[in-house]
Amino acid sequence: QVELVESGGGLVQPGGSLRLSCAPSGIIFRITDMGWYRQAPGKQRELVAVITRAASTNYADSVKGRFTISRNNANNTVSLQMNSLKPEDTAVYYCNFVSENWFGRRSYYWGQGTQVTVSS
Fold first, then answer.
1. With contact defined as beta carbons under 8 Å apart, do 41 and 21 qualify?
2. Tens-place pLDDT, residues 52-65
């Protein structure tokens, strides 16, 4: 089973920046959407940003103007540039890929999560 491997989390002061990256451990064919989700303690997992294969993007209102999602279709990687970080951005961040076979059946892949902590 192919897994997604995230990197780039850590501890940063408010107003700082971090860049998260995600790559698959093996080959995944026909990837459509790539996205980032996060889950803070005691809260449900929420969508942060998603990017389609055609590079159309969608962001949670709370991160618009601060976070930028990008992808590289040649090597199937996705990144999340996070600027002007706030304490409320503290969470475990998960990357997610969606693939679709010729019959329209979707498969979902998740990373193990990477901790982002924003604190002074």
1. no
2. 999 999 999 999 99
